[in-house]
UniProtKB/TrEMBL annotation:
This is Glutamine--fructose-6-phosphate aminotransferase [isomerizing]. Residues 39-178, 211-353 form the SIS domain. Its EC number is 2.6.1.16. It catalyses: D-fructose 6-phosphate + L-glutamine = D-glucosamine 6-phosphate + L-glutamate. It is found in: Cytoplasm. Catalyzes the first step in hexosamine metabolism, converting fructose-6P into glucosamine-6P using glutamine as a nitrogen source. The active site is at residue 358. Homodimer. The chain holds residues 244 to 606 of 606 of the full protein. It comes from the Bacteria. Keywords: Aminotransferase, Cytoplasm, Glutamine amidotransferase, Repeat, Transferase. Its main location: cytoplasm. The gene is glmS. One of its GO terms (biological process) is protein N-linked glycosylation. One of its GO terms (molecular function) is glutamine-fructose-6-phosphate transaminase (isomerizing) activity.
């Protein structure tokens, strides 16, 4: 049941404030304590993390790497499951291995999990389907409580994965003494505000649709981000390719002048994801290099960022301001909406894109 929406994807995008609230309710007590299932994880016993997944779930891991390293001071190795499983990397027994999968049945992710079994301290999984193979074979399974996701393009599962990962980061940081209780309280209160800022982001639907109409004419699109917004640039590009069939690539904005800027001309839209954080000026200077080559910039930022840098851009999309660390969750919304409206403008099959399956149970 599409609940009045034209596509499951649109419905699932709109559900995000509610399902993120669900996830928060399951992991956060009223007094702000983070409770993980099954006795939790002893973060003082581990000294590194290995995170493995495929597709969008991999990009959730990639985003969480920035958080775990910065906030919990834990080094993280992150890889796509199909590479990890055959690389057979050496792993220490002080490792926490985390496998992220919406379906819990992705063949490569399951194989990677089995490779780690017996070698690491703990195998944890973050899944949407609690009765799945990946959940069953983990020491600890953390459900994301996103509800059934029908659209092949993962949307609400991604933001719920990020929410649960962020809670894990805070738990790890606290257990390892990497943050003070005041810092923890700030993070928790920002998290509690997330459903309402996501609602505000959803209100930008019409602006995003207008930008998507322009984007639908493009043959190639670049996505740029820096720091924790870099994985999200990949997510924006993946979503766009998947459902609109437009060729899209993501680059760390600092990599631009090491090759990809050669592609830029007045036919190439460049989507820049840049909240007004400490890296903003760096990203903006990369964006200006794009504009100097007549690249058409779609800038996604907050009011402050747009006031400073939107002159001369092709389109801009305004996000509410949010605690720095949570920007990747919030900016997932315009990334999803941009792909969605572009696909609708092109008339492609949004919920069942060609050649793709919702659950990839063969390698
Ligand atoms: O069920 P999983 O989370 O393990 O699936 C992983 C990928 O196949 C999945 O995220 C895929 O990339 C999506 N179609 C992306 O929108």
């Amino acid at each position: 049941d599409k609940g009045g929406y034209k596509h499951f994807m649109a419905k699932e995008i709109a559900e995000q404030p509610g399902v993120i609230q669900n996830a928060l309710n399951h992991y956060l007590t009223e007094d702000g304590e983070i409770v993980l299932p099954d006795g939790g994880i002893d973060f003082t016993k581990i000294d590194r993390l290995t995170m493995v997944a495929c597709g969008t779930a991999y990009l959730a891991c990639f985003t969480a790497k920035y958080w775990f390293e910065r906030i919990a001071r834990l080094p993280v190795e992150v890889d796509v499951a199909s590479e990890f499983r055959y690389r057979e990397p050496p792993i220490s027994n002080r490792t926490l291995a985390i496998f992220v999968s919406q379906s819990g049945e992705t063949a490569d992710t399951l194989a990677a999990l089995r490779y780690c079994s017996g070698k690491v301290d703990t195998i944890a999984s973050i899944v949407n389907v609690s009765e799945s193979s990946i959940a069953r074979e983990s020491d600890l399974a953390l459900p994301i409580y996103a509800g059934v996701e029908v659209g092949v393009a993962s949307t609400k599962a991604f933001t719920c994965q990020l929410t649960v990962l962020f809670l894990m980061v805070l738990k790890a940081a606290r257990d390892r003494g990497a943050i003070t209780s005041a810092e923890l309280a700030d993070h928790i209160s920002a998290l509690r505000g997330l459903p309402s800022v996501i609602n505000m982001a959803l209100e930008q639907n019409d602006t995003v649709r207008a930008a998507a109409r322009k984007l639908s004419q493009a043959r190639d699109v670049l996505f740029l981000g820096r720091g924790q917004m870099y994985p999200l640039a990949h997510e924006g590009a993946l979503k766009l390719k998947e459902i609109s069939y437009i060729h899209a690539e993501a680059y760390a904005s600092g990599e631009l002048k090491h090759g990809p800027i050669a592609l830029v001309d007045d036919t190439v839209p460049v989507v820049v994801m840049a909240p007004r954080d400490s890296l903003f000026e760096k990203t903006v200077s990369n964006m200006q290099e794009v504009m100097a080559r007549k690249g058409k910039v779609i800038l996604i930022s907050d009011a402050k960022g747009l006031a400073e840098a939107s002159e001369g851009v092709w389109a801009s999309i305004q996000m509410p301001s949010v605690a720095d660390a949570l920007a990747p969750i919030l900016y997932a919304i315009p990334a999803q909406l941009l792909a969605y409206h572009t696909a609708v403008a092109k008339g492609t099959d949004v919920d069942q894109p060609r050649n793709l399956a919702k659950s990839v149970t063969v390698e």
